Amino acid sequence: MNRILFFKSAITALLILLILIPLHLVGNAVHDRKHYREEAVRSVWQSYAGPQTLTGPVLVLPYKEILRVADNSDPKRPNATMLQAEVGQVLVFPTTLRVKGEVMPSERYRGIHKVLVYEMQSRWQGTIALPDPGELPRSVGHVGFEVGQPYVAIGISDTRGLMAAPTFELDGKALKLEQGVRLKSLTQGLHAEINLPSAKSAKPGLDGRSAQAQRVVPFSLTLPLLGAQSLAFTPVADQNDISIDSAWPHPSFDGDFLPRTRSVNAQGFHSNWSVTSYNTKVRNQLAGPGDGTLESVSVTLIDPVNIYLQAERAVKYGAMFVLLTFAGFFMFELIKRLRIHPIQYLLVGLALAVFFLLLLSLSEHIAFALAYLAASAACIGLLGFYLSFVLQSWQRGLAFATLLTVLYGALYGLLLSEDNALMLGSLLLFVILAAIMVMTRRIDWYAAGAAWQPQRDKPAAAGAAETAVQA
Asked: Nearest CA to 276 among 245, 243, 238?
C-alpha cells in the first residue's frame, strides 16, 4: 500500500478516536440530566406520595403460649421443669377479595421535569373466616394461652397518600382505623382492633354431638389514595379479583401476574386480574420476618417518550455517525482526488457531536420529535454550507448534506423502533458497507495514494523548451 495512503488512513482513524471524547462527554451530560430528573421525581414523591403497594386486609390474632419445659439449670434435679412463654400470632386471610380501583392521572412539575401522579378511588369487598381463640395450635408441653387483642391490618406503602379517612366495615360493623400496621412484613399501613366473641357456631353432628362450623363474615373497605407512577395490590385471599380502570393510555403491566383480560386505547385502559392462593407465595411472605418484597399485581403509568432514554440511545450511535461520515470523506478524497485537511475532518466530527448535545437540551423544553428535527436541521445546514467549500463545489456539499439527511432519518427510525433497532441497524450497516465495496471495487489500492502526491517542479530544460514553443 502507498505510504501516503497508509498515513492518511491512520490519521483518519486517530481523528475518529479523538471525536469519541466529546461524544463521551455528551453521554455523561445525558447521564447527569437523567440523574437530575430522578432527583426531581423523588422530590415530588416526598411532598406528594410515592408508588403505592396495598396489602390486606389480614386478620391478626396475637397470643402467648405458656409451655412446661425441662429445667436443666440444676444437675441435681434432672426431672425439674419450668414454665416458659412463647409469643406467636395467627394470620387469617380473606376467603374472597374483590377490588375495583379507578385511577385518575395528572402531572406535577419540578422545574422543567414532568412527574406522573394519580388519585385513586377504590372499593374493596370480600369475606373472611373469623378465628376461634379456643382453637389455637398447641405445642408440646402446652399449659395455656394468653390471647392478645386481635386486629385487622391493611398495608399501605406510603400513608401520606391518604386523601381522606378510609372506612372499614366487618360483619356490618364500622371499625375505627388507626395508623400503624403492626406486622414486620409491612412497613406502613393501618389497623383496626376487633372483638371475637364467638367465632364458631354449634351445629348438630351425626353422632348427636355438636359440630363446629367456622363463621365467615363479609367486610368492605373504601380507600381514597394518592400515588405516583405505579400501583400494586397483593393477592392475599383464597380468590382475588382485582379491576383497575384509568384514563391514561400508556400502562405497563409489570407485576408478578399479568391481567387475565385488558384493553388499552387512546381513552385509557381497563384491566382485570384473577389470582388464587395456589398461584402465589404472598401468605408465606407476610408470615415471615419481612424483607420488603411481596408478590403483587401491578400497573405502571409510563411516559411513552422518555427523552433521556432516547438521547442516551442516540449517543450510542454517535460513533457510527462519525465513522460513516469520515468514511464518506475518505471516499470523496479517493475517488474525486480531493485533499481534505485533518482539521476539516475534526471540525465536521465536532459538529456531529454537537448535534447530540443540541438534541438533549432542546428535548427538555419541546417535544422530542421537534427537538430532533431542529437539531438535525441545524447540523445538516451547517455541514452542507461548510462542505460546499471543503469539497470545492456546492453540488458536492448538497449531495453530502442529502446523505446526512438520510443518515439522520435512519437514526430517528432506530430510536422509534426500539424492538427492531438491532435488525434495522444491522441492515443499515450492511447496505452502507455494500455501497462502499461497490464504489471501490475498481480502485488500485497500491496506487491510490498518488492522488495526494504534491506536484513537483518541472525540469528547467523542459520549461525553457515549452516557453520557446509557445513563443
From this structure: 238
Task: Give CA angle at 467 (464, 471), nearest 5°.
Answer: 140
The predicted model scores a pTM of 0.74
Cα 339–345–349 angle (5° rounding)? Answer: 160
Q: pLDDT by residue (tens digit) across 56-82?
A: 899 998 888 777 777 777 777 777 777
Here the cell at position 289 is: 420476618
Report the percentage of the chain scoring pLDDT > 90.
Answer: 34
Are 235 and 242 a contacting pair, CB within 8 Å? Answer: yes
Average pLDDT, the chain: 82
The per-residue DSSP string of 88-112 comes to EEEEE-EEEEEEEEEEEEEEEEETT
- How are beta strands 52-70 and 81-92 bridged, if at all? antiparallel
Nearest C-alpha neighbor of 37 from the set 353, 309, 356? 309
In degrees and rounded to multiples of 5, residue 121 shows phi and psi of -110, 125
Q: How far apart are CA 237 and CA 58, in angstroms?
A: 9
Contact call for residues 150 and 80 (beta carbons, < 8 A): no
